[in-house]
């Protein structure tokens, strides 16, 4: 950007915005930057409120989803366990019916054999008396029938054993299918839980990134506000304070002060001199206002830390000797003093027509004193006319005192508004710091919630729930229980078969 365009932009008046105070209902105007800062504060407040509501809503949704998942898992496990118990009861009933049928068939066969044996014994007893050959033949026939009967019984036992093995095989197949279905549902539920955990981690990571970005933005804003409080619009990089003030004045000299004199004070005849003298005249050559400036920077003397009051006596002396109406100390000394950081300070209680201000108030001080002097210029002209006409000076002095009071009142109002602006900046810094602390606390709570969620396991959920613990134990034990039951039934069958052999 060229120098001419920069001067034009500096000289152009800033667009102001009018704001009405909700308490006193007075309207005041602020520049575009101040208006943007107020809008940003309001937007940040709304954003924080909406963010808090969104976090509460997200937390509530997460808790509802976890509770719903727990309920669905418990319901599914109850249904699976109920179906499994029903199948086991049905299989046990079928096994009992088969066992009863087998025992009944064996009893009938034994009863028939016993009857035949008694009949044969009776016949042998009756025929023994007849002949030995008939007895031997009957004995052979008895043995043959006995072998046939035992063979038939053995065949019936083999058939019953085959039926029992088929039933056991069907039972084992049904249990295997039920377990496969349960494991499939368990895997699906586990996959759903993993997906929910992944979505939660992604959401937490996204929120954490957003919080870190917002915290960084607020840290940058706090630093900018602190720097603006210390120096506001001054730029001292590579420049001295005198060069900065001269540059700022030369930017607006052509438009605001076309007939003004602003040069360094090189007159050392009295033994001392100030830094700059400002004089402004009207078209007739009448002096409007004259100001003696003294610029003091902390870097001018690094051995000791000076105070602003150390230079006021010498500055008042230079003002009197050089015939200037006002004296202004532009100072960066005592940077932590709230007295000088709040705005333009008048030192009338120490020295007449003396002001102290920071570099950012350099141009406003010239403007305020010049505008006040423009009003007094009218009185100066009237004074000359009155003196020419031998008019009493009492009225003029009263008007001049009235003007001084009005000027002092205007100055107090201006100083009060500068003070209010600085206080608002301090409040903004405090508010942003609290926002940062709240976001850091939110991140810590989210991390603790994530740790608690990661620590949840099936074992901990069923620790104080005997019913669920038993159901989960049954899911892992049915194959072993079925095998033990099959071995027990095989032993019983072997015992029955052995008893038949003895008979």
SSE blueprint and pairings:
Elements: H1 3-11, E1 17-20, E2 27-30, H2 32-127, H3 132-231, H4 241-256, E3 261-264, E4 276-281, E5 287-296, H5 312-321, E6 326-331, H6 338-341, E7 345-346, E8 354-357, H7 362-388, H8 394-454, H9 458-461, H10 466-476, H11 478-502
Parallel strand pairs: 5-6, 6-8
Antiparallel strand pairs: 1-2, 3-4, 4-5, 7-8
Task: Please tell me about this protein's structure.
- The protein has about 500 residues and is α/β, with parallel strands linked by helices.
- It has 11 helices and 8 strands.
- It has helices spanning about 5-10, 30-125, 130-230, 240-255, 310-320, 340, 360-390, 395-455, 460, 465-475, 480-500, and strands at about 15-20, 25-30, 260-265, 275-280, 285-295, 325-330, 345, 355.
- It has a 6-stranded mixed sheet, sandwiched between helices. It has a two-stranded antiparallel ribbon with strand order 1-2.
- Strand 5 (about 285-295), helix 5 and strand 6 (about 325-330) form a beta-alpha-beta unit.
- Helix 1 (about 5-10) crosses helix 4 and helix 2 runs antiparallel to helix 3.
- The radius of gyration is 54 Å and the shape is rod-shaped.
- The model is unreliable at about 1-15, about 230-240, about 480-485 and about 495-503 (pLDDT under 50).
Total number of helices:
11
Can you tell me the overall shape?
rod-shaped
Terminal CA distance:
123 Å
Beta-strand residue fraction: 5-15%
The main sheet orders its strands as 3-4-5-6-8-7
The biggest beta sheet, please?
Answer: 6 strands, mixed
Q: Determine the structural class based on helices, strands and strand pairing.
A: alpha/beta
| Uncertain regions spanning at least 5 consecutive residues | 1-15, 232-238, 479-483, 493-503
Rg is 54 Å
The sequence of SSEs as H and E is HEEHHHEEEHEHEEHHHHH
């Amino acid at each position: 950007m060229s120098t001419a365009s920069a001067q034009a932009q500096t000289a152009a008046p800033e667009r102001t915005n009018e704001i009405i105070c909700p308490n006193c209902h007075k309207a005041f105007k602020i520049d575009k930057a101040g208006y943007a800062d107020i809008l940003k504060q309001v937007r940040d407040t709304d954003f924080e409120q909406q963010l808090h509501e969104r976090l509460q809503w997200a937390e509530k949704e997460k808790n509802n989803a976890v509770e719903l998942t727990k309920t669905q898992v418990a319901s599914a496990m109850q249904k699976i366990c109920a179906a499994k118990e029903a199948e086991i009861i049905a299989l046990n009933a079928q096994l009992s019916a088969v066992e009863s049928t087998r025992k009944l068939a064996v009893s009938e066969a034994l009863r028939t054999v016993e009857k035949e044996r008694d009949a044969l014994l009776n016949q042998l007893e009756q025929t023994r008396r007849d002949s030995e050959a008939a007895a031997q033949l009957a004995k052979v026939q008895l043995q043959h029938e006995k072998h046939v009967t035992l063979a038939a019984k053995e065949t019936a036992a083999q058939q019953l054993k085959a039926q029992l093995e088929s039933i056991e095989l069907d039972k084992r197949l049904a249990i295997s299918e039920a377990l496969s279905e349960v494991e499939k549902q368990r895997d699906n539920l586990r996959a759903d839980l993993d997906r929910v955990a992944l979505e939660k981690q992604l959401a937490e990571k996204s929120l954490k990134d957003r919080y870190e970005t917002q915290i960084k933005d607020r840290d940058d804003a706090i630093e900018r506000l602190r720097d603006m409080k210390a120096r506001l619009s001054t730029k001292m990089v590579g420049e001295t304070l005198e060069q900065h003030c001269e540059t700022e004045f030369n930017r607006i000299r052509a438009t605001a002060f076309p007939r003004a004199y602003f040069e360094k004070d090189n007159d050392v005849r009295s033994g001392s001199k100030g830094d700059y003298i400002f004089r402004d005249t009207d078209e007739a050559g009448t002096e409007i206002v004259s100001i003696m400036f003294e610029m003091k920077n902390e870097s001018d003397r690094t051995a000791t830390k000076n105070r602003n009051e150390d230079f006021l006596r010498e500055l008042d002396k230079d003002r009197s000797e050089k015939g200037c109406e006002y004296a202004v100390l532009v100072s960066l000394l005592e940077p932590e003093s709230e007295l000088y950081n709040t705005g333009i300070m008048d030192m009338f209680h120490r020295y007449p027509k003396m002001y102290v201000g920071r570099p950012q108030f350099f141009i406003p001080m010239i403007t305020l004193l010049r505008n006040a002097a423009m009003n007094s210029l009218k009185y100066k002209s009237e004074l000359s006319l009155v003196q020419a006409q031998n008019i009493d000076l009492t009225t003029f002095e009263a008007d001049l005192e009235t003007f001084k009071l009005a000027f002092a009142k205007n100055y107090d109002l201006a100083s009060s508004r500068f003070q209010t602006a600085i206080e608002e900046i301090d409040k903004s810094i405090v508010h942003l710091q609290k926002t940062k602390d709240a976001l850091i606390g939110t991140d810590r709570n989210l991390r603790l919630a994530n740790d608690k969620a990661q620590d949840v396991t099936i074992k901990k959920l069923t620790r104080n729930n005997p019913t669920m613990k038993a159901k989960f134990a049954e899911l892992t034990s049915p194959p072993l229980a079925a095998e033990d039951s099959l071995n027990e039934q095989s032993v019983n069958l072997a015992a029955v078969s052995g008893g038949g052999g003895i008979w």
